[in-house]
Specification:
This protein is an alpha/beta fold. It is 59% helix and 14% strand.
């Protein structure tokens, strides 16, 4: 029983993200299946269909996104699993081992499923962002070592100016992306800018990781090695993202500083 319930709950969680009318548009019919009186079947499984049972079912009845009606002559030897529909049971209908019924019309259930889905999505995004910071910082420290070191020096010399430039760059880039996405022609350009940002931003992240790692490893053996500094700094930056509220603010600060230091390092004629 526990395995079937777990499987049905997982299926329900997946199906709950799609409205009921979408299933009908996928080619599923809304015909009603009828088990007539004196008719005997082993089991019933309906998806996107309604069912009327007047006969005998020796095993389980499973109905997903459909309504189920049990007339007074219905005999269900095992259990009924009804997900996303309504159950009508006339007096005299018999169910041997109970009814497991979840209606998606329940607002509390919808809120629960939405909350679970949002929580899973946020946690996956945090994991992806942490891995991106770690891998991007390490990659940039080795592939663009000179540029990362130059960016680090720039950030240390003019921290406030770099932050202000990063804030302006973030706002400007956001406005440009919004303006591009409102037109079909501008969407490919917006995608191209996003790809360029993904490839260039690791330079700023690598510089920030170097600075943070250098501070954390002061006085530690091998603390002057760039690999350990980048690794420690990126792990520390990624770890702070998991704090509620503070993590969001920290993520914004890191993005602004990384973009600002990248912008300053790419300015022509910049001397380090």
């Amino acid at each position: 029983m526990s395995r079937k319930i777990c499987l049905l709950l997982l299926l329900l969680l997946f199906l709950s993200f799609f409205p009921g009318n979408v299933w009908a548009e996928q080619g599923l019919t809304n015909k009603t299946m009828i088990i007539f009186e004196n008719q005997k079947v082993d089991n019933v499984f309906l998806y996107g269909k309604d069912g009327i049972i007047s006969g005998e079912v020796t095993d389980e009845v499973v109905v997903i996104n459909g309504n189920l009606t049990l007339t007074n002559t219905a005999r269900i030897k095992d259990r009924i699993f009804l997900l996303g529909g309504e159950l009508t049971q006339e007096p005299g209908a018999q169910v041997g081992k109970g009814i497991f019924h979840i209606s998606l019309a329940n607002e509390n259930l919808n809120s629960l499923l939405l909350g679970v889905g949002a929580f899973i999505f946020i946690e996956l995004m945090k994991l992806f962002l942490a891995l991106f910071i770690l891998l991007a910082s390490l990659m940039s420290a080795f592939l663009f070592k000179t540029r990362v070191n130059q960016t680090k020096v720039i950030l240390q010399k003019s921290f406030i100016k770099t932050g202000l430039l990063g804030l302006l760059a973030t706002l400007g880039l956001g406005l440009i992306l919004v303006a591009l996405t409102v037109t079909i022609i501008g969407i490919p350009i917006a995608v191209l800018l996003g790809i360029m940002l993904i490839f260039l931003l690791p330079i700023g992240l690598g510089a920030l990781s170097l600075i943070v790692g250098e501070l954390l490893l002061t006085g530690v053996a091998r603390g002057n090695k760039s690999f350990y500094q980048v690794l420690t700094g990126s792990l520390f930056i990624a770890a702070l993202l998991n704090f509620p509220l503070l993590g969001v603010f920290w993520g914004i600060v890191i993005f602004v500083l990384a973009l600002g230091s990248l912008a300053v390092s790419l300015l022509p004629g910049r001397e380090t």
